[in-house]
Amino acid sequence: MFPLAFVGEGKRVILKYFAGGHGIFRKLVDMGLNPGSEIFVVRNQMAGPLIISVKGGQIALGRGIAMKIYVEVKE
Amino acid sequence: MKEVVIALIGNPNTGKTTIFNALTGLRQHIGNWPGVTVEKKEGELEHKGIKFRVVDLPGVYGLTAYSIDEKIARNFIVQEKPKVVVDIIDASNLERNLYLALQLLEIGANVVIALNKIDISEEKGYNVNPEKLEELLGVPVVPTIASKGEGIDKLKERIAKSLDKKPPIVEYPNFEPYIKKLIKVLEKDEKLTRQYNLRWLAIKLLEEDSDVRAIIEKSKMRDDVLKTLIDVFNDLHKKYDDIELALADERYKIISEIAKKAVTKKEERITFTEMLDEVFTHKYLGIPVFFSLMWMAFKFTFDVSAPFSDIIDAFFGWLGGVVGSGIGNDALASLLRDGILAGLGSVLVFLPPIAFLFLVFSWLEDSGYMARAAFVMDRVMHRFGLHGKSVVPMIMGFGCNVPAIMATRTLEDEKDRILTILINPLMSCSARLPVYALFAGAFFMGREGTVITSMYILGILLALILAWLFRGFIFKGQPSHFVMELPPYNKPNWRTIFGVTWTRTEKFLKKAGTIIFATMIIVWLLSVTGPSGYLGSNALESGELLAKSWVATIGRALEPIFKPFGWDWKAGVALFFGFLAKEVVVGTMGILYGVGEESLPYALASSSAFTPVAAFAFMAFVLIYVPCVATIGVIKQEAGTKWALFALLYELLLAYLVALVIVLMGGALL
Question: Which class in CATH covers the domain with range B3-161?
Fold first, then answer.
């Protein structure tokens, strides 16, 4: 398992868990990012925010928060 | 006739505003939710003899009460109990949108679903079957394409028919025994039973929702409820690490089952959005594209609005002349001509550029580009302690700081928002350009472009530096996390765009307009009167007379402060006037030097009042010192009196400091 921030463009991963407090993660869950969901990394320029696609919608995520989202490569 | 209250809710970017407009037409009322700066929109709708009051709730993803928006939406549904809650669902993003729908059903809301954007979902290769969805969810589902007005009549009909429907109950298999156990205890409190949906209370207790916990604290069954809750938690914690996430998982499982049955997927297609994003969010192209789009936006705004402004200006000049010459009494004529009409004129001259700026920005927002702009600029903004979303208000500030500060409402975090508001006046608004042009023309012939550009760059640099300082000392910590949906690009929906433009322009007129107007009259009064009494309207034409007025008194009082820069009392007067609207500085200089605006540069250059260094310092001072009254007014409205005073104070100090540095450095170098 590794942070979402390290996943390259065009890769598909599964969200495993959130590291750290509640707060902001509730909003992510409301936006369709719950553990178990499949994430497609649309943009990751290794600096600045990422763009991911989840449940058919696109979300921009700051690098800080992407470091706290742990994912696993989809088999 | 009794009014039936219904509410409109939905995720952001689902076309909620368009549906709201389509339902209510022009019968809308816009205000704020009590105690917060979140906009509250209400409208009227009549259908087959029933009168509805439609309340537009903020766009939210869930009802966890994590943000102010969610709190407002949730409290309204729980406490006001609208007869119907219309949930607008983006068909092209069904699963995520249904999450909110499930939460609405938990509260026990009488939900009617508007399945919007079915055209876009088809373009994306999805086919959502509304009848199937209706059957699976147990609530009315009306397919709509709000941007084309399709399905709106049907929606009205279904709303009217659903008024006394009983909403279905969504069961969460893994949690049912625990929910039932809690309900059994809760129902012993009749007051709770009457006021709330007990199922919802039970679910929220499981999620450890603090608001619901507070409700229970006041219940007579408090002790029993909490005891049961502890038992339940003991059980549940054996199975789940995080019950809240487990419940979310349960909801998404149900949703995914529903989606499987109601959605047929055709082949995946590369959409228009994906193609555009290849360029707009590109690592290297993103930022240049952003700056060129902004440049085009301003070019359009100023080019298109200039003739309108000229016409308004000319009209008020002419009207003032006619009115002035028609009235015998000099004081009265001057009040009308130089006070009221000139004041009105100076407000209305602002109107065309602002309206066009709003128009362009509303279009960029509606199209979906603004979210990309925030994404592209977040990297840069973050470095200075700002949020990606801060970039839009900052850019708008180049047009006018008043709407720019209003646009900070898109920032959810209070600290981020106030920080963005505080630095906004440093973005050099269009009213400051005439001042730069005058002084650059008078003292830096042949290098005007460079000198004027340097002012803009100075403003941006100071804004970024101050943002960094304020973040370090006042708003400690990091900017809030950047989380933002990137909606698909939209074809322009002109009804919505014009609607938004109009409401913003109207607000500008009401807020800024009245302040500018009132100040203009006060300044007029101070100019035509002096310690010796009424000076006559000629005071506005002749420098000699004006020298005896109250404004001159003020100018002289200010003179010692400006001594280090070598500016005389006239500069002080001009700056004083500039407080109301910065381009007034030019007009005032004209009056003080007794020449028209065309020959003013020569008059300035040949008088010994300014050296080039002093002139450069003066330009910088105009850039930084007090924001105009309208801006202060809007800061007060958006951030409170305390921050408005703070902005005023820090800008005065900063202006003084920067001018001093320029003069000292200039003196040392030349």
Answer: alpha beta
Nearest to B167 by CA among B114, B106, B116, B115: B106
Report CB contact under 8 Å: A34, B124.
no
Instruction: Report the alpha-carbon distance of residue A66 to residue A64 in Å, rounded.
Output: 5
Q: How far apart are CA B652 and CA B562, in angstroms?
A: 12
A31, A48, A65 ranked by CB distance to B379: nearest: A48
pLDDT at B448: 85
Residue B1 has a pLDDT of: 57
Low-confidence spans in chain B with pLDDT less than 70: 1, 65, 268-269, 596-597
pLDDT at residue B510, as a whole number: 79
Confidence (pTM): 0.85
Interface test with A, best of B483, B484, B489, B490 (most A CBs within 10 A): B483
B361-386 confidence digits (pLDDT tens): 889 988 989 999 999 999 899 999 99
pLDDT on residue B65: 65
* pLDDT at position A21: 66
Give the closest-approach CA distance of B81 to chain A in angstroms. Answer: 23
CATH of domain B176-265: 1.10.287.1770
Q: Where along chain B do the CATH 3.40.50.300 domains lie? A: 3-161
Of A36, A58, A61, the CB nearest to B483: A61
The count of domains in chain A is 1
Positive/negative CA dihedral, B233, B235, B241, B245: negative
Percentage, residues of chain B above pLDDT 90? 50
Crossing angle of helices B550-562 and B569-578, rounded to 10°: 110
Mean pLDDT of A63-72: 94
* A8: CATH: 2.30.30.90
- Which residues in chain B have Cβ-Cβ distances shorter than 8 Å to A58? 485-487
Which residue's entry shows tokens 């919007």?
B116
**Minimal Cα distance from B14: which residue of A?**
A57
In chain B, which residues touch A (CB < 8 A)?
60-62, 64, 66-67, 92-96, 99-100, 124, 126, 244-245, 248-249, 252, 277, 281, 283, 371, 374-375, 378-379, 382, 388, 478, 480-487
Q: Which of B595, B558, B593, B594 lies closest to B573 in space, CA to CA?
A: B558
DSSP-derived secondary structure for B279-328: HHT-TTTHHHHHHHHHHHHHHHHHHHHHHHHHHHHHHHHHHHHHHHHH-S
Cβ neighbourhood burial of B161 (10 Å; 0-12, 13-18, 19+): middle
Give the chain A residue whose CA is nearest to the CA of B489.
A58
Q: Which domain holds residue A24?
A: 2-73
Residue in chain B lying closest to A33 (CA): B96
Residue A6 distance to chain B (closest CA, Å): 16
pLDDT value of residue B115: 96
Backbone CA torsion sign across B376, B379, B383, B385 = positive
pLDDT at residue B491, as a whole number: 83
Closest residue in B to A48 (Cα–Cα): B379
User: Please, which residues have CB within 8 angstroms of residue B611's CB and are 6 or more apart in sequence?
Assistant: B566
The structure tokens 């760059």 sit at B457
Q: Kindly state the tokens that stand for B84.
A: 């119907």
**Beta carbons of B293 and B363 less than 8 angstroms apart:** no
